[in-house]
Amino acid sequence: MPVLLAGPWRWPISGAARTGPSAVTAAASGPAAAQDKAAQDKPAQDKPDRYVGYYYPKPAAIEIYKARAAVLPGANRKRRVAFIVAVVNERLQRPYPPTYSLFPKGGRAHKLIIVSNLPGQLNTIYRVRALLATMTSVARSLPIFRDHSVEDDFTFLDLMKMLGFESVTVSDGESFTHQIILR
User: Fold this and answer.
1) Is 161 domain-assigned?
2) Which of 71, 82, 125, 163 is the most buried (most CB within 10 A)?
3) SS3 of residue 102 by DSSP
4) The whole model's pTM is what?
5) Do the beta carbons of residue 27 and residue 73 sit within 8 Å?
6) Containing domain of residue 78, as a range?
7) What are the distances in angstroms from CA 145 to CA 72, 73, 119, 141?
8) Where are the beta strands (DSSP E) in the chain?
9) pLDDT tens digits along 28-51
10) 140 conformational bin, left if phi > 0, alpha if psi -120 to 50, beta if neither
11) Are 114 and 100 in contact (CB under 8 A)?
12) Which stretch of DSSP H or E encloses residue 92?
């Protein structure tokens, strides 16, 4: 996906360190960071999900994913939206319609929602995991992973954490939803 090789998500990562399998550490500072930290302190599963019944049915399961990456300095609403817009625009350039839609939601665009556009897709946990594995393959080709030697360790979910997303919700758009809370 050439569109994803450059753009607002190619921040320099200061303090890159490898521990365990790998980790990228970065610290943000200032009032915006304090607000983001306060919002992150309240678990997402404790907040009512106003998108249930509108974009997707109630999740069959809510998974907690402990990310290997930290949120990058400068990760904010504008950058999350720009990233998703770039992904969507790249997908719309293909000669066939997208099989799923993805979009950010929430006041800070901190929730990523992926909904199948076709019946019978993304309707089991196995299909959701397969999609996330495919997205991991693409994410691992991005410079942000390669430049910091984490392409073998980080996943698509780690990339979403780096961008500041707090949850990823995947649904068939009919009866199945799986939600992942990023920690």
Assistant:
1) yes
2) 163
3) strand
4) 0.76
5) yes
6) 56-183
7) 13, 16, 34, 7
8) 16-17, 23-24, 61-65, 100-105, 111-116, 167-171, 177-182
9) 334 444 444 444 444 444 678 999
10) alpha
11) yes
12) helix 77-92
